[in-house]
Design goal:
By secondary structure, the protein is an alpha/beta fold. The protein has a seven-stranded mixed sheet. Strands 11-12-16-18-20-19 form a six-stranded mixed sheet. The chain has a two-stranded antiparallel sheet with strand order 1-2. The N terminus and C terminus are likely disordered.
């Protein structure tokens, strides 16, 4: 049986001239075709290469209804495949010969939010756009809808190979403000169960969205605020609906957890352990308006440049202060408590694993990095790129940096030293995919770890250089920027290069997750297919629909219409649905039998889970 027949699609002879690097959709020149005709052609040929486009942005994408102003959303044309050949050429027979090695899902920056918490800086959003979002009251419903989308795709697996998903990896900022209640909601979202998304007074919303302050959207009020000036509707009953208990199904596949700066620090910026902040989390005072714009700017400057001074400036900036109901569940968690919660067998979920990657004892050591098997022959390396000194950017401690180096060496029979000299030794080769919260360009925070002040820190460029010494490294998958962005990290040769794959958040529009499929093309090249997916909620719901699905739909709509919305977060075609080609560091055809056997075994094992 030909390999294409395994998936019920004839691909023989397709893509005989994918040609130049970055050829859009892999369809060659479009001649005199109109943009619409070219898009139709690209979508058709993309579909010919897949087992199914259903439920992905290959099929349809949220798009605006109104040309200007506040808009409802509807289904627009999907995004076709872009073939990227910066690291290797595209062979014409690869679709007929390819073998799936791994298929996995990335969530990132879901930012499960306790919007009623006293320790938030919403009043700074005219200066820092991420300080407040009109959709954040619906973050749990939005996350549950993304889980449902992935579950709906489990029967068909990866869109290009049909391989069942091996796992999901969530690459940090799983919570917004590292509160215990947010962690509980996040774990329940992924594992399944009931969520009551409110804190303090469980019968009455106590946050900025019923504050009467005009700089926030007050959805239930008839007052004219900054957001209604931009077309946001008045929606009586929305806050009560947002607080209502609902059930989330949990993921139908194993999942692994990566630590992000919002999982570690106050609003992802200020260092943890400042006594005044720790007390305020569970206190009864919430600032809803600054005393003056000058005081607000002064606080922002401290948060961005001198975080340890920020706590002392909060009393100065406190203008409009609201009394709220205290809640001990808002207490901030430590990195060790984050790990401990994952290790609790009660949080295993439907498919585990226990710990979701964190090994036994890591709640004692606080070490938040580890390895795991994505599929036979493909190993995941998760990193802890947060810096306990605060700030949004990250870095790696020296011990972790050397651990990564030794892990890569242990799975590479051939690699290069720092001078570029080749090293060979006897070991079983594996492919590596690395995961972190931060990107290579957002790892410039080299301040010492307060708990280990003499340990050197390593930034993004150093890590890139390290990874380029190991040809078995295929990709580095990350988040943090809230932008879809894919780049080849070019080493001295294509073989010593890898792909850095950055995915947008699920708090800000476009609210994407990403499917990734690692494929052996059996022609001395590999491909990584990347496919973006949206949550399962309808593109447009009735404003009176108070179901979790309806609220998840509004979560997307409000995010699209947010006054701080940035269209650049969606990325260009090269950052969306792609085929990323690269040389096979294991030698191609002569290594294929072992890898094929391992992949087949993984498929059989995976099918037993569902």
């Amino acid at each position: 049986m030909a390999k294409n027949e395994r998936y019920g699609i004839s691909r023989r002879g397709f893509l005989t001239s994918a040609g130049a690097a970055g050829a859009l959709w892999g369809v060659g020149a479009v001649g005199t075709a109109t943009p619409a005709q070219a898009l139709d052609r690209g979508l058709k040929r993309t579909a010919e290469r897949t087992t199914s486009t259903a439920g992905t942005t290959l099929e349809q994408v949220a798009t605006r209804v109104s040309a200007t102003g506040y808009t409802r959303l509807t289904a627009g044309p999907g995004w076709p495949l872009m073939v990227r050949t910066e690291l290797a050429g595209a062979g014409g027979e690869r679709d007929d010969n390819r073998t799936a090695l791994a298929s996995f899902v990335q969530f990132t920056d879901v930012h499960v939010v306790d919007s009623e918490s006293p320790v938030r800086f919403e009043y700074l959003h005219p200066i820092i756009s991420s300080a407040y979002r009109p959709q954040e009251i619906l973050s749990t419903q939005g996350t549950a809808s993304l889980v449902r989308r992935i579950n709906s795709l489990v029967p068909t697996g990866g869109p290009y190979t049909g391989r069942p998903f091996d796992c999901m990896v969530t690459t940090g900022d799983n919570t917004d403000n590292h509160e215990h209640v947010e962690l509980d909601w996040m774990l329940t979202s992924f594992n399944g169960g009931s969520i009551t998304p409110t804190t303090g007074d469980l019968t009455h919303y106590e946050g900025v969205q019923n504050s009467g302050v005009a700089t926030f959207w007050n959805p239930e009020s008839g007052m004219q605020d900054m957001y209604k000036d931009h077309g946001f509707p008045q929606l009586p009953g929305l806050l009560s609906a947002a607080m209502r208990q609902f059930t989330t199904p949990g993921l139908d596949l194993p999942w692994f957890s990566v630590f992000g700066n919002h999982d570690d620090s106050v609003q992802g910026t200020l260092p943890s352990g400042i006594p005044s902040f720790d007390e305020a989390y569970t206190g009864n005072l919430k600032i809803e308006g600054p005393s003056s714009q000058a005081a607000a700017h002064k606080l922002v400057d401290a948060m961005q440049n001198r975080p340890h001074e920020a706590a002392g400036l909060v009393p100065e900036v406190a203008g409009l202060v609201r009394t709220v109901t205290p809640d001990a569940n808002r207490r901030p968690f430590t990195p060790k408590e984050y790990i401990k919660a994952h290790l609790d067998p009660a949080n295993k979920g439907r498919h585990g694993p226990v710990g979701h990657g964190f090994p036994a004892g890591s709640d004692i050591t606080g070490i938040a990095y580890y390895t795991f098997e994505i599929a036979p022959g493909v190993v995941g390396i998760t990193m802890d790129s947060t810096n306990r000194a605060g700030f949004t950017e990250g870095s790696l401690g020296h011990a972790q940096f050397r651990w990564i180096e030794s892990t890569l060496a242990a799975g590479s029979s051939r690699y290069f030293d720092t001078a570029g000299h080749e090293t060979r030794h006897t070991t079983e080769d594996t492919f590596f995919v690395l995961f972190s919260h931060h990107t290579s360009t957002s790892m410039g925070n080299l301040l010492p770890d307060p708990a280990n002040i003499f340990e050197p820190r390593h930034g993004g460029p150093e890590l890139v250089n390290l990874l380029q010494r190991f040809p078995n490294v295929l990709a580095w998958v990350n988040g943090h920027t809230h932008v879809n962005d894919i780049n080849p990290r070019m080493g001295p040769t294509p073989e010593r290069s890898f792909w850095e794959i950055n995915t947008a958040s699920h708090i800000d529009f476009p609210q994407h997750a990403r499917l990734l499929e690692v494929v052996d093309n059996q022609d001395s090249t590999l491909s990584i297919f990347t496919t973006l997916v949206e949550a399962e909620s309808p593109y447009q719901a009735n404003y009176s629909d108070s179901t979790a699905q309806g609220l998840a739909s509004l979560y997307r709509e409000f995010a699209f219409n947010d006054i701080h919305y940035k269209a650049t977060r969606t990325g260009a075609a090269k950052d969306q649905n792609t085929e990323l080609l690269m040389p096979n560091p294991l030698g191609g055809l002569n290594r294929a039998p072992r890898v094929r056997a391992a992949a087949a075994a993984s498929r059989s094992f995976s099918e037993g889970w569902w």
